[in-house]
Amino acid sequence: MTNSKHPFTNARLMAVQAVYAHTQSNESWDKVISRFLLGEVGGEAILEENGSEDYVSLPEADQSLFAHLTQYVRDNEKQLNEMVEGVFSEKIQRDKVDLTLRAILIVGCAEFFVNDALDTPIIINEYTDIARSFYSGPQIKIVNAILDKLAKVLKN
Questions:
Q1: Predicted TM-score (pTM) of this structure
Q2: Can you tell me the distance from the alpha carbon of 103 to that of 61, in angstroms, rounded to the nearest whole number?
Q3: What is the sign, positive or negative, of the torsion defined by CA atoms of 53, 5, 29, 19?
Q4: Dist CA 30 CA 63 (whole Å)
């Protein structure tokens, strides 16, 4: 994972981490969001170099964007999941999409609503970059393709 220096990018990454944490733990949304905002969890990334992994602290995340994204996911989780599921194609098998990739897609979809004044290509690029920090394979193209499809559906 890369070490981003932008507060908005870090907020997006933390939101992805929070969605992942909620999915994995089944902790209440309020508890997960609170733990991230208080700095109990999150704020770190894994830096992989020369075959070794090190945890590195990320610069401060924009807490307002993080809160808006995670609260939107909390309040609209079922609809966001349905939207993401609705744009999978035959090429992309649902069971091949792991929890990290799903979290990236859910938060990316939420941002179309939370940050609707931001240009769509910027949102797609941000989440494609986040995917790139976790993956080096086809998942990057999957994020790009699915968020592009979602954007077209939502803009109509």
A1: 0.86
A2: 18
A3: negative
A4: 15
Alpha carbons 11 and 76: distance in angstroms, whole number: 19
Topology of the domain comprising 7-155: N-utilizing Substance Protein B Homolog; Chain A (1.10.940)
CA distance 150 to 119: 14
Distance CA 103, CA 131 (A): 10
- CA–CA distance, 22 with 66 (Å, rounded to integer): 14
Residue type, 112: F
Q: What's the one-letter identity of residue 148?
A: D
HSE-CB for 132 with a 13 A CA cutoff:
12
Residue pLDDT, tens place only, 50-97: 667 666 666 688 999 999 999 999 999 999 999 988 887 656 666 667
